[in-house]
Amino acid sequence: MTATPVTPEERLAEAGLKLPPAPAPVAVYVPAVLSGHYVHTSGQLPMVDGALPLTGKVGAEVTPEQGHELARLCALNALAAVASVAGDLSAVKRVVKVVGFVASAPGFTGQPGVLNGASELLGTAFGDAGIHARSAVGVAVLPLDSPVEVELTVELHTPMGV
Prior knowledge:
Elements lengths: L7 H7 L17 E4 L2 E4 L22 H23 L5 E12 L7 H16 L6 E7 L8 E9 L6
Parallel strand pairs: 3-4
Antiparallel strand pairs: 1-2, 2-5, 3-5
């Protein structure tokens, strides 16, 4: 009988995903900040091995389905940023808030569907503790011409560094 995955990392592995190293900042900031019981991530781009797999606007050069996958990558990078300050994802009690930005072609209104890629990944990793409040915002352009950017706020079981 196969053991049920118990940690968020094991749940991600069961889904065929591995937590990458925390992404390096592309400007003057840190990937995540710990404040008491909370970790706030900087906006994370869908970087893979230090590069964007796609650039452009969702609804033009990038399809909504591709945007959905890119949002998933953003969330995975955001979780790596969380783990970089919390030690591992088992320290996370719950995901509190997701803010997602979608570089949108004029007239594109499917931002919530694109951001579902991030929300679904968080549900895979944390189950019910991954259910969160969310904003899905359409914007004209994002850093490096990224189609999507995601930031997280998570609550930890115990405050770190106390």
